[in-house]
Amino acid sequence: MSAAARQTRLGRFRVTALRDANFALDGGAMFGVVPRVLWEKLTPINEDHTVPLSTTPYLLQDGEHTIVIEPGLGLRWPDKQRSMFHIDHSAGHELLASLRAHGVEPEQVTHCLMTHGHWDHIGAACGEDGAPVFPRAEYWMPRSERDACMNPDHLRRASYRREDLAPIEDAGQLRTFVDQFDILPGVKMVEVGGHSDGVSLVLVEDAGEKACFWADVVPTRHHVHLPFIMAYDMNAAKSFEVRSEWIARAAAEGWTCLLYHDPEQPIGRFVGGDRRYGWQALEVSV
Ligand SMILES: [Zn+2]
After folding, report:
1. Number of domains in the chain
2. What's the CA gap between 32 and 95, in Å, rounded?
3. Alpha-carbon separation of residue 232 from 88, 195, 236 (angstroms)
4. Which H helix or E strand runs over 191?
5. Whole-number Å distance between alpha carbons of 66 and 214
6. What is the CATH number of the domain that holds 73?
7. Quick one: pLDDT band at residue 1, thresholds 50, 70, 90?
C-alpha cells in the first residue's frame, strides 16, 4: 500500500507539508468555465455545492534557515464564515501546532513567504491576538499584493482583510518586492499575476533539483490541465498564459510541485507535455 507523502528532500532543504485547515469553496467557482459534468467526477461535492479543500503551508529547513511558505487561513474567523467556508481546525490542523509537531517554535522561523494577500493564504500570518505569529521573521510579499491588501477596492474587498497584514507592517517585519526577488540562496519569489494582481510562485533550487510552490496558479491536482482556471482569477487570459509557460517548464524539468489547496496530495510532479498535463503524487510506502 502507498500513501501521499508529506515530506521530501530537495538538495540541502527538507520540505514538509504542514497543516493549517480544511475548508470548502463553491465548486463552480473553483473550476471556472469547466462544466460541472467534467469536474464533478474529480472531487467529492458537499450538499451546499462546495468542494473540500485544505490550506497547506510548507516548511523549508536547511539547518540555517526556517522558512514558512504561505501561513494559512488561521484562527481569526467569526462563526458565520466558519460555517459558510466549513473551516475546520480539528485533529491538530493549525499552523503553530503543526510546526511544533515538527519541532519548530514560532520564534525560530526566519522567513514567512506570502505569495499574495488573499485571506485563505495569509490569515494565519497573525495569531488570535492579532500580532505577527513569527516574532523574529521577515515576512515577504509582492508590493502589488501589499497595496491590494492594505487598500482593497470594491472588486477586491471580499478577498482581502487589512487586519491580516497591517500588524506585520506596523511591527516593521514586512518586506516587499517587485517582479522577482532572491529571498536567500536557492529560494526565489517570482511575481506572475493572473489569479490576483501579483500572485507569486516560490521557486526552490539546490544541487540541481527544483521545486515550485504554486499558490493559486495551480491550487489542486485537478487544476493542472491548462483550461482548468478558477472563476476567482482576476485575469483569466493572463492566468492561462502564466500556466502555459510555467506548467510546461515544471513538467519538462521534473520539478517537485507543492500544492496549497489539495486536501489529499500536497507533493508531486506534473507529467505529460504538448499542452496536456496531469499529476503524479509523491508517495510513501506504508
Ligand atoms: Zn487566492
Report:
1. 1
2. 29
3. 22, 7, 9
4. strand 187-191
5. 19
6. 3.60.15.10
7. low
Domain residue limits at 188:
2-285
> For residue 218, how far is its CA from the centre of ligand 1 (angstroms)?
10
Contact (Cβ atoms closer than 8 angstroms) between residue 11 and residue 208? yes
Q: What pLDDT does residue 34 have?
A: 96
Query: Cα(2) to centroid of ligand 1, in Å?
Result: 31
Written in H, E and C, the secondary structure of 107-169 is: HHCCEEECCCCEHHHHHHHECCCCCECCCCCEEEEEHHHHHHHHCCCCCCCCCECHHHCHHHH
Share of the chain above pLDDT 90, in %: 95
Distance 160 CA to ligand 1 centre (A): 9
How many angstroms is it from 31 CA to the middle of ligand 1?
14
Residue 172 zone, left/alpha/beta (φ > 0; ψ -120 to 50; rest):
left
State in Å: Cα 118 to ligand 1 middle.
5
Per-residue burial over 3-18, b if 16 or more Cβ lie within 10 Å, else e, is ebbbebebeebebbbb
In the reported structure, the alpha carbon of residue 241 is separated from the centroid of ligand 1 by a whole-number distance in angstroms of 17
